[in-house]
Protein backbone atom coordinates (compact mmCIF):
# COMPACT_ATOMS: atom_id res chain seq x y z
CA UNK A 1 0.00 0.00 0.00
CA UNK A 2 1.03 3.60 -0.61
CA UNK A 3 -0.62 6.94 0.14
CA UNK A 4 -1.19 9.45 -2.64
CA UNK A 5 0.82 12.04 -0.71
CA UNK A 6 3.77 9.63 -0.67
CA UNK A 7 3.61 9.43 -4.46
CA UNK A 8 3.83 13.22 -4.63
CA UNK A 9 6.73 13.34 -2.16
CA UNK A 10 8.70 10.70 -4.05
CA UNK A 11 8.16 12.47 -7.37
CA UNK A 12 9.34 15.77 -5.84
CA UNK A 13 12.39 14.04 -4.32
CA UNK A 14 13.16 12.24 -7.60
CA UNK A 15 12.97 8.82 -5.95
CA UNK A 16 13.43 6.24 -4.73
CA UNK A 17 10.79 4.67 -6.95
CA UNK A 18 9.05 1.34 -6.68
CA UNK A 19 6.21 0.12 -8.88
CA UNK A 20 2.83 0.01 -7.22
CA UNK A 21 -0.57 -1.08 -8.52
CA UNK A 22 -2.86 2.00 -8.67
CA UNK A 23 -5.70 0.18 -6.92
CA UNK A 24 -3.57 -0.17 -3.80
CA UNK A 25 -2.93 3.57 -3.47
CA UNK A 26 -4.85 5.30 -0.66
CA UNK A 27 -5.77 8.88 0.09
CA UNK A 28 -8.54 9.66 -2.38
CA UNK A 29 -12.10 8.62 -3.24
CA UNK A 30 -11.96 6.54 -6.43
CA UNK A 31 -15.70 6.77 -7.15
CA UNK A 32 -15.68 10.55 -6.79
CA UNK A 33 -12.56 10.75 -8.96
CA UNK A 34 -14.19 8.75 -11.75
CA UNK A 35 -17.31 10.92 -11.60
CA UNK A 36 -15.20 14.06 -11.82
CA UNK A 37 -13.18 12.73 -14.73
CA UNK A 38 -16.40 11.83 -16.55
CA UNK A 39 -17.70 15.34 -15.92
CA UNK A 40 -14.46 16.79 -17.29
CA UNK A 41 -14.61 14.47 -20.31
CA UNK A 42 -17.97 15.89 -21.35
CA UNK A 43 -17.23 19.47 -20.35
CA UNK A 44 -17.72 21.86 -23.27
CA UNK A 45 -14.91 24.08 -24.45
CA UNK A 46 -11.46 24.77 -23.05
CA UNK A 47 -10.63 24.61 -19.37
CA UNK A 48 -7.57 24.46 -17.18
CA UNK A 49 -6.88 22.77 -13.88
CA UNK A 50 -4.55 24.33 -11.32
CA UNK A 51 -4.08 21.19 -9.25
CA UNK A 52 -3.22 17.72 -10.54
CA UNK A 53 -5.95 15.17 -9.92
CA UNK A 54 -5.16 11.91 -8.10
CA UNK A 55 -5.06 9.90 -11.33
CA UNK A 56 -2.59 12.36 -12.83
CA UNK A 57 -0.32 12.12 -9.78
CA UNK A 58 -0.43 8.32 -9.88
CA UNK A 59 0.21 8.25 -13.64
CA UNK A 60 3.17 10.60 -13.26
CA UNK A 61 4.53 8.42 -10.46
CA UNK A 62 4.27 5.25 -12.57
CA UNK A 63 5.79 7.07 -15.54
CA UNK A 64 8.77 8.00 -13.39
CA UNK A 65 9.10 4.35 -12.35
CA UNK A 66 9.24 3.30 -15.98
CA UNK A 67 11.67 6.08 -16.83
CA UNK A 68 13.99 5.00 -14.00
CA UNK A 69 13.74 1.41 -15.26
CA UNK A 70 14.72 2.56 -18.75
CA UNK A 71 17.67 4.53 -17.39
CA UNK A 72 18.95 1.42 -15.63
CA UNK A 73 18.73 -0.56 -18.87
CA UNK A 74 20.38 2.21 -20.89
CA UNK A 75 23.23 2.35 -18.39
CA UNK A 76 23.53 -1.46 -18.49
CA UNK A 77 22.68 -1.72 -14.81
CA UNK A 78 20.56 -4.42 -13.21
CA UNK A 79 16.84 -3.73 -12.88
CA UNK A 80 15.89 -3.68 -9.21
CA UNK A 81 13.04 -5.85 -7.94
CA UNK A 82 11.10 -2.65 -7.19
CA UNK A 83 11.22 -1.67 -10.87
CA UNK A 84 10.90 -5.11 -12.47
CA UNK A 85 7.84 -4.11 -14.53
CA UNK A 86 6.47 -6.08 -17.47
CA UNK A 87 3.75 -5.39 -20.03
CA UNK A 88 1.05 -7.21 -18.09
CA UNK A 89 1.73 -5.02 -15.05
CA UNK A 90 1.61 -1.92 -17.27
CA UNK A 91 -1.70 -2.97 -18.83
CA UNK A 92 -3.28 -3.84 -15.48
CA UNK A 93 -2.25 -0.43 -14.14
CA UNK A 94 -3.67 1.26 -17.24
CA UNK A 95 -6.95 -0.62 -16.95
CA UNK A 96 -7.27 0.34 -13.28
CA UNK A 97 -6.59 4.01 -13.94
CA UNK A 98 -8.88 4.17 -16.97
CA UNK A 99 -11.77 1.94 -15.89
CA UNK A 100 -11.81 2.60 -12.14
CA UNK A 101 -10.74 6.25 -12.14
CA UNK A 102 -11.83 7.42 -15.63
CA UNK A 103 -8.33 8.67 -16.43
CA UNK A 104 -7.76 9.78 -20.01
CA UNK A 105 -4.42 11.18 -18.77
CA UNK A 106 -3.24 7.66 -17.95
CA UNK A 107 -4.47 6.32 -21.28
CA UNK A 108 -2.36 8.88 -23.11
CA UNK A 109 0.82 8.74 -21.06
CA UNK A 110 1.16 5.04 -20.21
CA UNK A 111 0.78 4.05 -23.86
CA UNK A 112 4.20 5.69 -24.39
CA UNK A 113 5.66 2.50 -22.90
CA UNK A 114 4.37 0.22 -25.69
CA UNK A 115 7.87 -1.19 -26.09
CA UNK A 116 7.18 -3.40 -23.06
CA UNK A 117 4.80 -5.43 -25.21
CA UNK A 118 6.37 -8.41 -26.97
CA UNK A 119 5.15 -11.31 -29.06
CA UNK A 120 5.26 -13.40 -25.87
CA UNK A 121 2.96 -11.21 -23.78
CA UNK A 122 0.81 -9.41 -26.37
CA UNK A 123 -1.97 -11.99 -26.28
CA UNK A 124 -2.28 -11.89 -22.48
CA UNK A 125 -2.33 -8.10 -22.53
CA UNK A 126 -4.99 -7.92 -25.22
CA UNK A 127 -7.21 -10.44 -23.45
CA UNK A 128 -7.15 -8.22 -20.36
CA UNK A 129 -7.96 -5.15 -22.43
CA UNK A 130 -10.76 -6.87 -24.35
CA UNK A 131 -12.44 -7.90 -21.11
CA UNK A 132 -12.14 -4.36 -19.75
CA UNK A 133 -13.49 -2.88 -22.98
CA UNK A 134 -16.53 -5.14 -23.06
CA UNK A 135 -17.39 -4.30 -19.45
CA UNK A 136 -17.12 -0.51 -19.86
CA UNK A 137 -19.46 2.32 -20.76
CA UNK A 138 -18.99 4.67 -23.70
CA UNK A 139 -16.60 7.29 -22.37
CA UNK A 140 -14.34 4.64 -20.82
CA UNK A 141 -14.40 2.67 -24.06
CA UNK A 142 -13.24 5.75 -25.94
CA UNK A 143 -10.25 6.14 -23.60
CA UNK A 144 -9.49 2.42 -23.84
CA UNK A 145 -9.77 2.59 -27.63
CA UNK A 146 -6.85 4.99 -27.91
CA UNK A 147 -4.87 3.11 -25.26
CA UNK A 148 -5.33 -0.20 -27.06
CA UNK A 149 -4.54 1.07 -30.56
CA UNK A 150 -1.45 2.91 -29.33
CA UNK A 151 -0.13 -0.04 -27.32
CA UNK A 152 -0.64 -2.50 -30.17
CA UNK A 153 0.43 -0.05 -32.90
CA UNK A 154 -2.69 -0.84 -34.84
CA UNK A 155 -4.41 1.16 -37.57
CA UNK A 156 -3.60 3.60 -40.39
CA UNK A 157 -1.16 5.62 -38.27
CA UNK A 158 1.11 2.60 -37.90
CA UNK A 159 3.14 0.43 -40.22
CA UNK A 160 2.07 -2.25 -40.84
CA UNK A 161 -1.57 -1.18 -40.60
CA UNK A 162 -2.68 -4.70 -39.69
CA UNK A 163 -0.83 -4.27 -36.42
CA UNK A 164 2.60 -4.86 -35.00
CA UNK A 165 1.52 -8.10 -33.31
CA UNK A 166 -0.88 -9.48 -35.93
CA UNK A 167 1.14 -12.68 -36.37
CA UNK A 168 1.40 -13.28 -32.62
CA UNK A 169 -2.33 -12.86 -31.96
CA UNK A 170 -5.17 -15.26 -32.65
CA UNK A 171 -7.80 -14.58 -35.32
CA UNK A 172 -10.24 -13.67 -32.54
CA UNK A 173 -7.80 -11.18 -31.04
CA UNK A 174 -7.02 -9.60 -34.39
CA UNK A 175 -10.76 -9.35 -35.05
CA UNK A 176 -11.20 -7.49 -31.76
CA UNK A 177 -8.53 -4.95 -32.71
CA UNK A 178 -10.23 -4.47 -36.06
CA UNK A 179 -13.57 -3.95 -34.31
CA UNK A 180 -12.14 -1.35 -31.92
CA UNK A 181 -10.69 0.59 -34.85
CA UNK A 182 -13.71 0.38 -37.16
CA UNK A 183 -16.30 1.06 -34.45
CA UNK A 184 -14.61 4.38 -33.82
CA UNK A 185 -15.44 6.65 -30.93
CA UNK A 186 -18.75 6.42 -29.11
CA UNK A 187 -18.79 9.88 -27.51
CA UNK A 188 -16.64 11.84 -29.97
CA UNK A 189 -17.58 12.62 -33.56
CA UNK A 190 -15.67 10.32 -35.90
CA UNK A 191 -15.85 12.97 -38.63
CA UNK A 192 -14.54 15.87 -36.54
CA UNK A 193 -12.70 15.16 -33.28
CA UNK A 194 -13.35 18.73 -32.13
CA UNK A 195 -17.01 17.77 -31.65
CA UNK A 196 -19.03 15.34 -29.56
CA UNK A 197 -21.40 12.96 -31.32
CA UNK A 198 -24.30 15.36 -30.68
CA UNK A 199 -22.47 18.07 -32.63
CA UNK A 200 -21.52 20.16 -29.58
CA UNK A 201 -17.99 21.44 -29.41
CA UNK A 202 -15.36 19.60 -27.36
CA UNK A 203 -12.44 21.98 -27.83
Describe the structure.
The structure is a single chain. With 203 residues, this protein is mostly helical. The protein has a domain of 135 residues. Helix content is 51%, strand content 2%. Strands 1-2 form a two-stranded parallel sheet. It is globular. The mean pLDDT is 94.
Keyphrases for this structure?
mainly alpha, 8 helices, about 0% strand
Q: Which residues sit in consecutive blocks of at least 5 with pLDDT less than 50?
A: none
> Strand-and-helix sequence, N→C?
EHEHHHHHHH
Helix and strand content put the structural class at mainly alpha
Please compute the radius of gyration using only Cα atoms. 17 Å
User: What is the makeup of the main sheet?
Assistant: 2 strands, parallel
How is the secondary structure organized here?
Layout: E1 2-3, H1 4-13, E2 25-26, H2 30-41, H3 54-74, H4 87-100, H5 104-110, H6 122-134, H7 138-151, H8 171-183
Parallel strand pairs: 1-2
Helix pairs in contact: 1-3, 3-5, 4-5, 4-6, 4-7, 5-7, 6-7
